[in-house]
Amino acid sequence: MTVRQLRLVVEAEDYDAAVAFFRDVLGMAEQEAYTTGDARVAILDAGRATLEIANPAQKRYIDEVEVGRDVAPQLRVAFEVDDGPAVTARLVAAGATQVAPPTVTPWRSVNSRLEAPAGLQITVFQELFDGDRPG
Q1: What's the half-sphere exposure (Cβ side, CA atoms, 13 Å) at 62?
Q2: Which CATH superfamily is domain 15-127 in?
Q3: Rounded CA gap, 30 and 43, in Å?
Q4: What is the pLDDT of residues 25-46, one digit of tens each?
Q5: CA-closest candidate to residue 44, choices 29, 26, 27, 25
Q6: End-to-end distance of the chain based on CA atoms, in angstroms?
């Protein structure tokens, strides 16, 4: 058996605001959308998906590097983008709360942390290397 897709399902009290933020501002293309009565769902394309599992020490380390303190809930969603500072500014202008500004990490990426709609804490990251990931 092979997993063919990772789909993260998020309940959003303000559905329209959440869809607009992730689809229109962050730029995730809408693949499908369904309405049944007052039940609504939009499935947005996030590109390649991975599942990153970290132990508590690694989670605290990432928080320390990106934010300077332990802030993330158990679940945080990270989005790779081409221009981290520009995307961060666009998301903040659209209503996200910046938790930490774009920061160069020891793993050679520029990461920023935001509080986004639907109660999600997100990281926006831009890789700074070409080719294979360093050591």
Answers
A1: 23
A2: 2,3-Dihydroxybiphenyl 1,2-Dioxygenase, domain 1 (3.10.180.10)
A3: 6
A4: 999 999 999 999 999 999 999 9
A5: 29
A6: 30
Cα dihedral 102→131→28→33 (10° resolution): -140
User: CA–CA separation, 43 vs 64, rounded Å?
Assistant: 32
pLDDT-flagged residues of the chain (< 70): 130-135
Q: Residue 4's pLDDT is what?
A: 85
Q: Specify the amino acid at residue 31.
A: Q
d(CA 120, CA 117): 6
Nearest to 122 by CA among 103, 106, 104, 99: 99
CA distance 88 to 92: 6
Q: Where are the alpha helices (DSSP H) in the chain?
A: 15-19, 56-66, 84-93
**Which pLDDT belongs to residue 131?**
60
Which residue is it, tokens 């599942």?
A: 51
